């Protein structure tokens, strides 16, 4: 199909520059991309008939890692001042 309609995982390395140039980087385009990604994630991992805890646990793990990375610089500076 057309390059614009292909997902990132189906784009070849030589086509990556052209694929990125066809993306919509306006606020509305980015919001649409985030909505599409969330709907895809929700349909694959959360809204399933016989699903396990994988989808929600991945979401919680991502949140924990993101929270830790946000606070890591603060903790690192605090330890340096405390021991040196």
TrEMBL record:
Q: Specify the superkingdom.
A: Eukaryota
For this protein, the record's InterPro entries field holds:
F1F0-ATPsyn_F_prd
* Single Gene Ontology MF annotation: proton-transporting ATP synthase activity, rotational mechanism
- Is ATP-binding found in the keyword set? no
**In its keyword annotation, does this UniProt entry include Ribosomal protein?**
no
Main localisation: mitochondrion
Gene Ontology cellular-component terms listed: mitochondrial membrane; proton-transporting ATP synthase complex
> Transmembrane residues, as ranges?
54-72
Please cite one Gene Ontology biological process associated with this protein.
Answer: proton motive force-driven mitochondrial ATP synthesis
Q: Which family does it belong to?
A: Belongs to the ATPase F chain family.
Q: What is this protein called?
A: ATPK synthase
Q: Which organism is it from?
A: Furnarius figulus
